[in-house]
Design goal:
- By secondary structure, this protein is an alpha+beta fold.
- The protein folds into two domains: 308 residues, no CATH class; 88 residues, no CATH class.
- It contains ten helices and 17 strands.
- It has a five-stranded mixed β-sheet.
- The radius of gyration is 22 Å and the shape is globular.
């Protein structure tokens, strides 16, 4: 049997290369093993292997025969060659598109390739496969790989309806690290030792307070946040977002993508700490010192990064409503609310009734203005132009006034 495709990269080589330093001639990263091997010499002395080594991207985040199957009359390498081959090829262009995204660009093939690539990336790592095995209650490798194939779009609908934010670390001397589970989730009330984070488990993305992080390169990161959480961060982080069913269609709005957020060095360090704590066994970075963000993290408390809002998009660029109408050639019209529900569903558009999300969003806009000042941390594209970089003094005072009118029943 040929050795081609025997060494399975669960984090593609082309993705790892996005984290090399500019002008770097060799394709090597500093590679940290959380559980370095131990060995015993001839005199019975126990030694522990070095935790950090410099490795080429052809060696990092790879495992022999991770995807190899052994069915009669089926190529044992079909998953690596055909399934991941096509998804990775399209994903590479999609990651590049979103790293360099600017409004008012619209590229539906890139978006579709991006969410499918991210969804399979979350499942294909050793952590993802162990999670699938746990959920499927099986240790049979073939069954787990079949489940991965079946549920490759598991996360796509929820992510489609999230608020997308592309944040920039160009002004920070510290850059993003690479994880062995690069599609990372964070919920501020689910610390690394919580039940929801034990073993291969992550907080579910359909919980209101769960963010999804995916570094696009050393300088850019994609952060996905449930719309329900941005509109109301005073509810339970562990309650389900509206319409949590992940297996369905969804509508994506390019105009709502927030761009131009410049991260500080401390924010990058805090994000790297989250990436590291949610990794499984390995992380890598262009510089060795970046592998240890815990040495410089802003707080040891999992729920307090950025005052609890490190990963939040700017709520001042969030609007209410969000109902979508799609016309068809036969004259029919399809309706969706902001959470993908249809008109015949009993809870269609219920968040917009009464004070609802209007009260909590107004309050949060005011709180955000007080915490971070009049300059926007992210800017969406509305009314054919980007949101203002900075609120006027009058508008800033208006936002501050919104916080004082706190709706009943939503105390933090």
């Amino acid at each position: 049997m040929s050795n081609e495709y025997k060494r399975n990269h669960y984090v593609p080589e082309w993705y790892q290369r996005r984290f090399l330093l500019p002008g770097q001639k060799n394709a090597e990263l500093y590679y940290l093993n959380f559980k370095p091997k131990q060995f015993i010499d001839s005199k019975g002395r126990v030694y522990t292997d070095k935790a950090v080594r410099r490795r080429g991207v052809s060696v990092c985040f790879a495992q022999d025969d991770l995807y190899t199957i052994a069915f009669r009359n089926i190529d044992p390498k079909i998953i690596e060659k055909q399934f991941f081959g096509e998804i990775d090829a399209r994903g590479m262009g999609a990651v590049d598109y979103f790293e360099n995204f600017t409004h008012p660009s619209v590229n539906n093939p890139a978006f579709e390739a991006m969410i499918l690539f991210m969804s399979t990336q979350k499942l294909r790592t050793p952590k993802g496969l162990e999670w699938l095995a746990q959920k499927s209650k099986t240790v049979n490798k073939h069954t787990v790989l079949r489940k991965m194939w079946e549920f490759q779009k598991l996360y796509c609908a929820i992510w489609t309806e999230c608020v997308w934010q592309i944040a920039d670390a160009s002004n920070s001397p510290v850059k993003f690290i690479v994880s062995d589970h690069p599609v990372t989730v964070y919920n501020r009330v689910c610390g690394p030792r919580s039940v929801r984070c034990r073993g291969p488990n992550d907080p579910e993305i359909w919980l209101n307070g769960t963010h999804t992080l995916y570094p696009l390169s050393a300088n850019k990161i994609l952060i996905l946040t449930n719309l329900s959480w941005v509109r109301n961060p005073y509810q339970s982080e562990l309650s389900f977002r509206p319409n949590p069913n992940p297996i369905r269609g969804a509508i994506f709005k390019y105009n709502d993508i927030q761009t131009l957020r410049q991260l500080t060095e401390q924010e990058v360090i805090d994000i790297n700490y989250i990436l590291k704590r949610r990794a499984y066994n390995f992380i890598a970075a262009a510089k060795e010192e970046w592998l240890f963000p815990e040495d410089r993290v802003s707080t040891p408390k999992w729920n307090e990064y950025g005052g609890g809002y490190l990963l939040m998009p700017d709520p001042r660029s969030i609007h209410l409503g969000g109902e979508v109408f799609i016309g068809h050639r036969d004259g029919g019209v399809s309706h969706f609310d902001a959470y993908g529900r249809r008109p015949w569903q009993s809870d269609y558009g219920k968040e917009g009734k009464g004070l609802g999300e209007a009260g909590t969003l107004n309050r949060f806009q005011g709180e955000f203005a007080r915490m971070f000042g009049p300059s926007r941390r992210g800017r969406a594209f509305q009314f054919m132009s980007l949101d203002n970089e900075r609120d006027s003094d009058e508008f800033h005072q208006y936002h501050l006034g919104l916080e004082r009118r706190k709706p009943r029943g939503n105390s933090k």
